[in-house]
Design goal:
237 residues, alpha/beta, binds calcium ion
C-alpha cells in the first residue's frame, strides 16, 4: 500500500510563524494545511479530521482553551499546543483540557517534529481505503473481498455483491485489522454526531453477510464506548 502521509492542521494567525512550521513539517514529509482563525479551522475539521493539530492558543476570533475544548469534545486526533514563553498557566490548562503536549515559542523545529512524531505514535492512523481500489483482493478468516467489484466470496465459494456503503466500510476495517476504529474513523474522519446510527446499521448489515450473531460477533467486534474492531489476519494481494 502507498504510504499516505499524515495530515497536520496548523492553526496560527501569525503568517511568518505558520510558514516556518509548515516548512519544517513538509520537509519531514507531512501534509499540512494552515488556518488563521478558529472559524476557518473548524470549517476545515468538519470537512476532514486531521491526524494532528498544532494549535496556537492566541487566536484573534476565539479563546484558545475554548478551541481546544470544542475540538476535544468531538474529535480524536493528536493535539500539540503552541504557547508563549512563560505562559505556565496556558501550558498547564492546555494539558488539563486534553492537549497531548506543548511547544514554547520561539520553538526549535527539530523539537517540534520530535513532539509531533511522538504524539502520532499514540494515535492510530485515520483509515484510508487501499491505494488502488480497482485491483485489490483481501483474504481474511476464510473470506475473500475484491474491492474493484465489491464482491464478497464466502468460505463455501458463494459470491455476493456488497452495496457501495457496505464495501467502503469493509475496506476501512480490512485496512486496519485488529485495531479499534471509532465511528468517526469508519466514516473516513467526518463529524459523525448525526450519523452514529447509520454506521451501526451498516455494521449490522455487514455482520449479516458474515452470518455473525450480533450478540457474540467474532469477526466484527463491538468495543463498548469506543467503536468496532475487525478480528482477523488480512492478506492483501
Ligand atoms: Ca497568535
Amino acid at each position: 500500500m502507498t504510504r499516505n502521509p499524515e495530515l497536520i492542521y496548523v492553526v496560527e494567525d501569525e503568517l511568518d510563524v505558520a510558514r516556518l512550521i509548515r516548512a519544517a513539517l513538509e520537509k519531514f514529509g507531512f501534509r499540512t494545511e494552515v488556518f488563521r482563525t478558529a472559524e476557518a479551522f473548524f470549517h476545515g475539521v468538519r470537512h476532514r479530521v486531521p491526524d494532528l493539530v498544532i494549535l496556537d492558543l492566541g487566536l484573534p476570533d476565539m479563546d484558545g482553551m475554548a478551541v481546544l475544548q470544542q475540538l476535544r469534545s468531538k474529535h480524536t486526533c493528536g493535539l500539540l499546543v503552541l504557547t508563549g514563553r512563560g505562559d505556565v498557566y496556558d501550558r498547564v490548562m492546555g494539558l488539563e483540557l486534553g492537549a497531548d503536549d506543548y511547544v514554547v515559542k520561539p520553538y526549535e523545529p527539530r523539537e517540534m517534529i520530535a513532539r509531533v512524531r511522538s504524539i502520532l505514535r499514540r494515535y492510530p492512523r485515520q483509515p484510508v481505503v487501499p491505494a488502488d481500489p480497482t485491483q485489490r483482493v483481501a483474504e481474511f478468516a476464510g473470506w475473500r473481498f475484491e474491492t474493484g467489484s465489491n464482491t464478497l466470496v464466502g468460505p463455501d465459494g458463494q459470491q455476493e455483491t456488497l452495496s457501495t456503503a457496505e464495501a467502503q466500510l469493509l475496506s476501512v476495517l480490512l485496512a486496519h485489522p485488529n485495531h479499534i476504529l471509532t465511528r468517526e474513523q469508519l466514516l473516513g474522519g467526518r463529524d459523525v454526531s448525526a450519523l452514529d446510527r447509520s454506521i451501526d446499521l451498516r455494521i449490522s448489515r455487514l455482520r449479516r453477510r458474515f452470518e455473525e450473531n450480533p450478540q457474540h460477533a467474532k469477526l466484527i467486534k463491538t468495543v463498548y464506548g469506543a467503536g468496532y474492531l475487525l478480528a482477523a489476519t488480512v492478506t492483501w494481494s
